[in-house]
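Practice problem: predict the structure.
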Amino acid sequence: MTSMTAPRTSPQPGLRERKKIKTREAIRAATYALVEEQGWDATTIEQIAERAEVSPSTVFRYFPTKEDIVLTDEYDLLIMEELRSRPADEPWPESLRLVMHRAIRMGVKDDPVVSRLRTRLMVEVPSVRSRMMESMSSTGRLLCQAIGERTGRAPDSLEVRVYAMSFIGGLMEVSMFWAENEHEGDFEALVDRALDVIEHGLPPENH
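Answer:
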């Protein structure tokens, strides 16, 4: 299955970085398992640390909040790298759509159980939803940089900021819609519908 990868020129992570990745994954896996077993509110950092065989301070060193454990991933920088690797003459909306398809295959379709849990928590837990909005704001700033590089516009211009955050907000609403509707339908197709609205505006109502 197609997935995004870092540029081939990127160095492979060293032993120390591999240990960090392994620890992050252990903390995430412990959190997902505990939340599935007993729910979000009953799951504590101490329980997560015990399940992951690390100390609570280690959990906080990798993830500042419990919400970050289920929301943080390493995809943002990969997405930006992928956008920058697209042909310069490719229409921006087409580049964005292609990269999002690859990101979805990597992040949603390759790990559907976790993707459903994350989006369900966004709907059910206000603190997760609030933290997601903060996280996506950071992603939006990265997207502004990528748009500025591609289009020659100032990354902090009003037009670029509005476009980037419309896209980010659209993705969040797709995730919420998917979870609110029992994860029915194909997430990739829902993202396509959202991108169509961003690119072309609201479609005519079906009568």
